[in-house]
Amino acid sequence: MKTLNPKKILIASSVHVWLDTRIYFKEAISLAENGFEVVLIARDGANLKEAVHRNITLVKLPEMRELSRVKACRQIYKLALDSDAMYYHFHDPELLPVAWLLKKRKKQTRVIFDMHENFPKALLSKDWIKPPIRKMLVGTVRVLEPRLLAACDGVIFAEESYKKDYPFLRRTVDVYNLPHDPGELAREQGADLVLTYVGGITKIRGAMEMLALVKVLQQRMANVKLQLIGPIAPALKLEMMAYVEEQRLERHVCFYDRLSYGEIWTELAKATIGLCLLHPVPNYMESMPTKFYEYMAAALPILSSDIPLWTRFLSENEAGWTADPFDSQMMADDILEVYKAAPSSRLAKMGWRGRDAFLKKYSWQQEERKLVDFYEAMRVVAE
């Protein structure tokens, strides 16, 4: 058996592209800049161009249309078995069996799981799974997931709320998905009211509600635009584009697909309001959206769904307001009230209060320290 390198980490995802913001720009780079040698295995993104960090070795998996998730898991397992890394950091629930098998075969390694979402609760909102199958699947996951997680040496929670469902785990740390400070963005002061959404675009994340909102707004003002920044399934994009054409919103809606980390900040500098109209499904009720912090970092006021946790957060930080995401007329009224009354003052004040809170409490800097300390503590245990 190979001698394991105590400063080497293999990070793997069978789903995410290698330039994923949390996986690459936050965790992999932070670890690489703190003395670790990092191997990153993740999906290729053909339209994503970025120089790889000097301390990171990149192994690209083909895109999902070319390599299934099952085959990707098998490939990751083979690469992990052959690696001399001491640490294995997995990012997707489907890799938990890989983590369990790897720990059985290489007992001296340290296996870490990075929990991006409460998986059983997330399954409840997967409408593409038929309800009877979904119920059976959730039940199976609730039995198997604890056993697989218990085999891991450590679990990283991306949200504080996840912890209450996993009290049995012996070594955990909260590493929230907070953004880096982009600096004070040079805002582009145009005549348009620009609404922006950043993140994966799905129906339960408010895809159709954002289009309905723009439809109402453009009936009352000509200079409104919606920027949709993030990956979207082809079938949903066709449905959304059909709606845009039917409602004659072509001049008002822009699809950007996935952008690089730097390009996202460029587009946020052009925006007036950041949107987060997610549906009140179980997985979102106790979780804070990453996009909140990104909007705050960019000094953007936020309009979000009226989920109680989010309402309290935005009120406490005076960074925006909430509304019923299914009431496009009321949301339009709220936007026009704050925009037309004093577009350069009320909205700007919300944005700058949000940025001030971000700088004081919500930047990646403190999360990086927690991540590195967690690995250092694991190394002491390994030694």
UniProtKB/TrEMBL annotation:
It holds the Pfam family Glycos_transf_1. This is Glycosyltransferase family 4 protein. The lineage of its organism: Bacteria, Bacillati, Bacillota, Bacilli, Bacillales. Keywords: Glycosyltransferase, Transferase. The keyword Transferase applies. Residues 30-164 form the Glycosyltransferase subfamily 4-like N-terminal domain. One of its GO terms (molecular function) is glycosyltransferase activity. It comes from the Bacteria.
